[in-house]
Amino acid sequence: MELSEIGYSLIKEGQTFENSIGDFLLDWISDIPTVEVFTSGSTGKPKKITLQKEHMVNSANATGKYLDLKAGDTSLLCLPCESIAGKMMLVRAMVLGLELDYIEPSSTPLALLHKPYDFVALVPLQAKKSITQLSQINTIIIGGAPISSSLQKKLEQTDSAIFETYGMTETITHIAMKKIGKAQVRSSAVDTYFETLPNVTISKDDRDCLVINAPKVSDGIIVTNDIVELLDKSRFRWLGRLDSIINSGGIKLIPEQIEAKLAQVIGCRFFITGIADVSLGEKLVLFVESENIEKSELLQKIEALEDIGKYEIPKEIYAFPSFVETKSGKIDRIKTVEALQA
Length: 342
Prior knowledge:
Elements (H helix, E strand, L loop, with lengths): L2 H11 L2 H14 L4 E5 L9 E5 H15 L6 E4 L6 H13 L2 E4 L14 E6 L1 H5 L8 E6 L6 H7 L5 E8 L4 E8 L13 E3 L4 E4 L4 E5 L8 E9 L4 E7 L4 E3 L2 E3 L1 H8 L7 E8 L3 E9 L5 H9 L12 E5 L12 H9 L1
Parallel strand pairs: 3-4, 3-5, 5-6, 6-7, 17-18
Antiparallel strand pairs: 1-2, 7-8, 8-9, 9-13, 10-11, 11-12, 12-13, 14-15, 16-17
Helix pairs in contact: 1-2, 3-4
Protein backbone atom coordinates (compact mmCIF):
# COMPACT_ATOMS: atom_id res chain seq x y z
CA MET A 1 0.00 0.00 0.00
CA GLU A 2 1.34 3.45 -0.93
CA LEU A 3 2.07 6.01 1.81
CA SER A 4 -0.68 8.25 0.46
CA GLU A 5 -3.22 5.43 0.78
CA ILE A 6 -2.07 4.68 4.33
CA GLY A 7 -2.24 8.37 5.24
CA TYR A 8 -5.74 8.89 3.87
CA SER A 9 -6.94 5.67 5.52
CA LEU A 10 -5.61 6.70 8.94
CA ILE A 11 -7.25 10.12 8.66
CA LYS A 12 -10.60 8.82 7.40
CA GLU A 13 -10.97 5.59 9.33
CA GLY A 14 -8.39 5.67 12.12
CA GLN A 15 -8.70 6.47 15.79
CA THR A 16 -7.90 9.97 17.00
CA PHE A 17 -4.24 9.19 17.71
CA GLU A 18 -3.90 7.67 14.21
CA ASN A 19 -5.13 10.85 12.52
CA SER A 20 -1.89 12.68 13.33
CA ILE A 21 0.12 9.80 11.83
CA GLY A 22 -1.90 10.05 8.64
CA ASP A 23 -1.56 13.83 8.53
CA PHE A 24 2.21 13.61 8.83
CA LEU A 25 2.59 10.91 6.17
CA LEU A 26 0.68 13.10 3.70
CA ASP A 27 2.79 16.13 4.66
CA TRP A 28 5.93 14.05 4.20
CA ILE A 29 5.17 12.90 0.64
CA SER A 30 3.98 16.34 -0.50
CA ASP A 31 6.18 18.52 -2.74
CA ILE A 32 6.64 21.06 0.06
CA PRO A 33 10.24 20.73 1.35
CA THR A 34 9.37 21.71 4.92
CA VAL A 35 7.24 20.50 7.83
CA GLU A 36 5.63 22.73 10.47
CA VAL A 37 5.81 21.53 14.07
CA PHE A 38 5.20 22.99 17.51
CA THR A 39 7.72 23.09 20.36
CA SER A 40 6.78 21.12 23.45
CA GLY A 41 5.74 24.07 25.61
CA SER A 42 7.34 22.61 28.73
CA THR A 43 9.41 25.77 29.34
CA GLY A 44 7.08 28.32 27.79
CA LYS A 45 4.24 28.80 25.34
CA PRO A 46 4.44 26.34 22.40
CA LYS A 47 5.57 28.00 19.20
CA LYS A 48 5.33 26.92 15.59
CA ILE A 49 8.62 26.34 13.79
CA THR A 50 9.46 25.17 10.28
CA LEU A 51 11.84 22.25 9.71
CA GLN A 52 13.50 21.16 6.48
CA LYS A 53 12.65 17.61 5.43
CA GLU A 54 16.25 17.22 4.31
CA HIS A 55 17.37 17.98 7.86
CA MET A 56 14.94 15.40 9.25
CA VAL A 57 16.44 12.79 6.90
CA ASN A 58 19.94 13.77 8.08
CA SER A 59 18.84 13.42 11.71
CA ALA A 60 17.44 9.96 11.05
CA ASN A 61 20.67 8.88 9.35
CA ALA A 62 22.79 10.22 12.23
CA THR A 63 20.72 8.28 14.77
CA GLY A 64 20.91 5.16 12.63
CA LYS A 65 24.68 5.43 12.38
CA TYR A 66 25.19 6.11 16.09
CA LEU A 67 22.95 3.24 17.20
CA ASP A 68 23.88 0.88 14.34
CA LEU A 69 20.27 0.51 13.21
CA LYS A 70 19.82 -1.51 10.03
CA ALA A 71 17.13 -2.03 7.41
CA GLY A 72 14.69 -4.67 8.63
CA ASP A 73 15.19 -3.87 12.32
CA THR A 74 11.89 -3.76 14.19
CA SER A 75 10.72 -0.59 15.93
CA LEU A 76 7.70 0.60 17.90
CA LEU A 77 6.04 4.02 17.79
CA CYS A 78 4.36 4.75 21.12
CA LEU A 79 4.74 8.55 21.21
CA PRO A 80 2.13 11.04 20.00
CA CYS A 81 2.72 12.13 16.41
CA GLU A 82 1.71 15.71 17.11
CA SER A 83 5.21 16.09 18.57
CA ILE A 84 8.56 16.01 16.79
CA ALA A 85 9.56 12.85 18.71
CA GLY A 86 6.68 10.87 17.23
CA LYS A 87 7.18 12.30 13.75
CA MET A 88 10.86 11.35 13.80
CA MET A 89 10.08 7.73 14.63
CA LEU A 90 8.13 7.64 11.37
CA VAL A 91 10.96 9.35 9.48
CA ARG A 92 13.55 6.94 10.87
CA ALA A 93 11.44 3.99 9.79
CA MET A 94 11.09 5.37 6.25
CA VAL A 95 14.71 6.52 5.86
CA LEU A 96 16.43 3.57 7.55
CA GLY A 97 14.04 0.86 6.34
CA LEU A 98 12.84 -0.13 9.81
CA GLU A 99 9.78 -2.33 10.27
CA LEU A 100 7.51 -0.09 12.35
CA ASP A 101 4.54 -1.01 14.52
CA TYR A 102 2.51 1.67 16.30
CA ILE A 103 0.19 1.72 19.30
CA GLU A 104 -1.85 4.38 21.06
CA PRO A 105 0.44 6.52 23.26
CA SER A 106 0.09 5.88 26.99
CA SER A 107 2.20 5.88 30.15
CA THR A 108 2.40 2.06 29.96
CA PRO A 109 3.08 1.37 26.26
CA LEU A 110 4.79 -1.99 26.79
CA ALA A 111 2.21 -3.50 29.18
CA LEU A 112 0.67 -5.68 26.45
CA LEU A 113 3.88 -6.20 24.50
CA HIS A 114 3.94 -9.68 22.98
CA LYS A 115 7.02 -9.44 20.75
CA PRO A 116 10.58 -8.13 21.05
CA TYR A 117 11.75 -4.98 19.26
CA ASP A 118 15.13 -3.76 18.11
CA PHE A 119 14.46 -0.06 18.71
CA VAL A 120 11.98 2.01 20.75
CA ALA A 121 11.84 5.67 21.89
CA LEU A 122 10.25 6.48 25.26
CA VAL A 123 9.80 9.39 27.64
CA PRO A 124 11.01 8.86 31.25
CA LEU A 125 7.52 8.21 32.65
CA GLN A 126 6.96 5.44 30.08
CA ALA A 127 10.34 3.91 30.91
CA LYS A 128 9.59 4.03 34.64
CA LYS A 129 6.26 2.25 34.21
CA SER A 130 7.71 -0.31 31.78
CA ILE A 131 10.80 -1.42 33.73
CA THR A 132 9.87 -5.11 33.69
CA GLN A 133 9.29 -5.11 29.92
CA LEU A 134 12.38 -3.16 28.82
CA SER A 135 14.51 -6.28 28.43
CA GLN A 136 12.40 -7.21 25.39
CA ILE A 137 13.92 -4.25 23.51
CA ASN A 138 17.48 -4.23 22.20
CA THR A 139 18.02 -0.46 22.00
CA ILE A 140 16.05 2.23 23.82
CA ILE A 141 16.33 5.99 23.65
CA ILE A 142 14.73 8.05 26.42
CA GLY A 143 14.14 11.78 26.05
CA GLY A 144 11.76 14.66 26.51
CA ALA A 145 12.79 15.24 30.13
CA PRO A 146 15.81 14.46 32.32
CA ILE A 147 16.10 10.95 33.76
CA SER A 148 15.98 11.02 37.56
CA SER A 149 18.70 9.31 39.58
CA SER A 150 16.17 6.81 40.97
CA LEU A 151 15.05 5.82 37.47
CA GLN A 152 18.63 5.59 36.25
CA LYS A 153 19.44 3.11 39.02
CA LYS A 154 16.58 0.91 37.83
CA LEU A 155 17.66 1.24 34.20
CA GLU A 156 21.19 0.17 35.14
CA GLN A 157 19.81 -3.27 35.96
CA THR A 158 18.37 -3.67 32.46
CA ASP A 159 20.29 -5.64 29.84
CA SER A 160 19.09 -3.41 26.98
CA ALA A 161 21.31 -0.72 25.47
CA ILE A 162 19.70 2.43 26.88
CA PHE A 163 20.52 6.01 25.92
CA GLU A 164 19.34 9.24 27.51
CA THR A 165 19.02 11.83 24.75
CA TYR A 166 19.56 15.58 24.64
CA GLY A 167 17.84 17.77 22.10
CA MET A 168 14.85 19.92 21.27
CA THR A 169 12.37 20.50 18.48
CA GLU A 170 14.74 23.03 16.87
CA THR A 171 17.45 20.34 16.59
CA ILE A 172 14.93 17.77 15.27
CA THR A 173 15.00 15.76 18.53
CA HIS A 174 18.37 14.65 19.87
CA ILE A 175 21.84 15.84 18.88
CA ALA A 176 23.59 14.00 21.73
CA MET A 177 23.21 10.82 23.77
CA LYS A 178 24.41 9.43 27.08
CA LYS A 179 24.75 5.67 27.55
CA ILE A 180 23.22 4.19 30.68
CA GLY A 181 22.44 0.64 31.76
CA LYS A 182 24.46 -2.57 31.77
CA ALA A 183 25.26 -2.67 28.06
CA GLN A 184 28.27 -0.32 28.18
CA VAL A 185 30.22 -0.08 24.94
CA ARG A 186 31.97 3.27 25.21
CA SER A 187 34.28 4.96 27.70
CA SER A 188 33.18 5.49 31.29
CA ALA A 189 33.01 9.27 30.67
CA VAL A 190 29.88 8.75 28.61
CA ASP A 191 28.11 7.69 31.83
CA THR A 192 28.29 11.29 32.99
CA TYR A 193 28.65 13.25 29.75
CA PHE A 194 26.42 13.44 26.72
CA GLU A 195 28.24 12.63 23.47
CA THR A 196 27.21 14.40 20.27
CA LEU A 197 26.01 12.59 17.17
CA PRO A 198 28.00 12.73 13.89
CA ASN A 199 28.47 16.22 12.35
CA VAL A 200 27.62 18.06 15.58
CA THR A 201 30.08 20.23 17.53
CA ILE A 202 29.46 22.22 20.69
CA SER A 203 30.78 25.14 22.71
CA LYS A 204 29.41 27.42 25.42
CA ASP A 205 28.84 31.15 25.68
CA ASP A 206 29.69 33.64 28.43
CA ARG A 207 26.59 32.52 30.36
CA ASP A 208 27.98 28.95 30.45
CA CYS A 209 25.10 27.90 28.18
CA LEU A 210 25.41 25.31 25.41
CA VAL A 211 25.92 26.49 21.83
CA ILE A 212 25.20 23.89 19.13
CA ASN A 213 26.67 23.79 15.63
CA ALA A 214 24.74 21.12 13.72
CA PRO A 215 24.71 22.13 10.04
CA LYS A 216 23.10 18.86 8.93
CA VAL A 217 19.94 19.51 10.97
CA SER A 218 19.85 23.29 11.43
CA ASP A 219 20.48 26.28 9.16
CA GLY A 220 22.27 28.25 11.88
CA ILE A 221 24.02 28.10 15.22
CA ILE A 222 21.63 27.30 18.09
CA VAL A 223 22.23 29.15 21.36
CA THR A 224 20.43 27.41 24.21
CA ASN A 225 19.56 28.34 27.79
CA ASP A 226 21.01 25.06 29.06
CA ILE A 227 23.85 25.47 31.54
CA VAL A 228 26.55 22.90 30.82
CA GLU A 229 30.02 21.76 31.71
CA LEU A 230 32.11 21.02 28.62
CA LEU A 231 34.61 18.17 28.44
CA ASP A 232 35.53 18.83 24.80
CA LYS A 233 33.88 19.76 21.49
CA SER A 234 31.72 16.65 21.50
CA ARG A 235 30.96 15.90 25.17
CA PHE A 236 29.16 17.86 27.86
CA ARG A 237 27.41 17.49 31.19
CA TRP A 238 23.97 19.10 31.46
CA LEU A 239 23.51 21.06 34.69
CA GLY A 240 20.16 22.82 34.29
CA ARG A 241 18.20 25.63 32.64
CA LEU A 242 19.33 29.25 32.91
CA ASP A 243 15.72 30.44 32.85
CA SER A 244 14.77 28.16 35.74
CA ILE A 245 17.44 29.43 38.14
CA ILE A 246 15.95 30.56 41.45
CA ASN A 247 17.46 33.66 43.07
CA SER A 248 16.54 33.21 46.71
CA GLY A 249 17.94 35.93 48.94
CA GLY A 250 20.92 36.36 46.60
CA ILE A 251 21.66 32.63 46.44
CA LYS A 252 21.35 31.17 42.93
CA LEU A 253 19.82 27.70 42.93
CA ILE A 254 19.53 25.34 39.94
CA PRO A 255 16.28 23.34 40.31
CA GLU A 256 17.44 20.44 38.15
CA GLN A 257 20.44 19.77 40.39
CA ILE A 258 18.27 19.87 43.49
CA GLU A 259 15.71 17.57 41.86
CA ALA A 260 18.43 14.99 41.21
CA LYS A 261 19.13 14.91 44.95
CA LEU A 262 15.47 14.82 46.02
CA ALA A 263 14.80 11.88 43.70
CA GLN A 264 16.54 9.71 46.31
CA VAL A 265 13.57 10.11 48.67
CA ILE A 266 10.61 10.97 46.42
CA GLY A 267 9.03 8.12 44.50
CA CYS A 268 6.40 10.06 42.55
CA ARG A 269 6.61 12.86 39.99
CA PHE A 270 7.76 16.19 41.40
CA PHE A 271 9.55 19.40 40.53
CA ILE A 272 11.30 22.32 42.19
CA THR A 273 10.52 25.93 41.33
CA GLY A 274 10.62 29.42 42.80
CA ILE A 275 7.63 31.56 43.73
CA ALA A 276 7.54 35.21 44.75
CA ASP A 277 8.44 35.97 48.36
CA VAL A 278 8.50 39.33 50.14
CA SER A 279 11.75 38.80 52.06
CA LEU A 280 13.70 36.47 49.73
CA GLY A 281 12.49 37.71 46.35
CA GLU A 282 11.92 34.08 45.42
CA LYS A 283 11.53 31.10 47.68
CA LEU A 284 12.30 27.54 46.71
CA VAL A 285 9.22 25.28 46.79
CA LEU A 286 8.52 21.64 45.99
CA PHE A 287 5.54 20.41 43.95
CA VAL A 288 4.65 16.73 44.43
CA GLU A 289 2.16 14.71 42.40
CA SER A 290 0.43 12.80 45.18
CA GLU A 291 -2.91 12.70 46.95
CA ASN A 292 -1.70 11.37 50.30
CA ILE A 293 1.82 12.70 50.84
CA GLU A 294 2.84 13.28 54.46
CA LYS A 295 4.61 16.64 54.10
CA SER A 296 6.37 16.73 57.47
CA GLU A 297 7.70 13.21 57.00
CA LEU A 298 8.92 14.03 53.49
CA LEU A 299 10.64 17.19 54.74
CA GLN A 300 12.47 15.17 57.38
CA LYS A 301 13.74 12.77 54.70
CA ILE A 302 14.94 15.69 52.59
CA GLU A 303 16.74 17.32 55.51
CA ALA A 304 18.46 13.99 56.25
CA LEU A 305 20.03 13.76 52.78
CA GLU A 306 23.82 13.88 53.03
CA ASP A 307 24.33 15.91 49.86
CA ILE A 308 21.57 18.50 50.38
CA GLY A 309 22.58 22.09 51.11
CA LYS A 310 20.67 24.22 53.59
CA TYR A 311 19.49 26.55 50.82
CA GLU A 312 18.26 23.57 48.78
CA ILE A 313 15.64 22.51 51.32
CA PRO A 314 12.15 23.54 50.14
CA LYS A 315 10.44 26.32 52.08
CA GLU A 316 7.03 24.88 51.16
CA ILE A 317 5.68 21.58 49.81
CA TYR A 318 2.56 21.55 47.63
CA ALA A 319 0.79 18.31 46.75
CA PHE A 320 -1.38 17.91 43.64
CA PRO A 321 -3.38 14.80 42.68
CA SER A 322 -2.18 15.30 39.08
CA PHE A 323 0.07 17.83 37.38
CA VAL A 324 -0.96 19.82 34.33
CA GLU A 325 0.71 18.27 31.27
CA THR A 326 1.67 19.42 27.79
CA LYS A 327 0.26 17.60 24.77
CA SER A 328 3.43 15.50 24.63
CA GLY A 329 2.96 14.31 28.22
CA LYS A 330 5.57 16.49 29.89
CA ILE A 331 4.86 18.31 33.15
CA ASP A 332 3.66 21.84 32.37
CA ARG A 333 5.39 23.55 35.27
CA ILE A 334 4.10 27.01 34.45
CA LYS A 335 0.43 26.00 34.36
CA THR A 336 0.79 23.78 37.41
CA VAL A 337 2.16 26.71 39.40
CA GLU A 338 -0.58 28.95 38.00
CA ALA A 339 -3.17 26.44 39.23
CA LEU A 340 -1.78 26.89 42.76
CA GLN A 341 -1.95 30.67 42.55
CA ALA A 342 -5.40 30.81 40.91
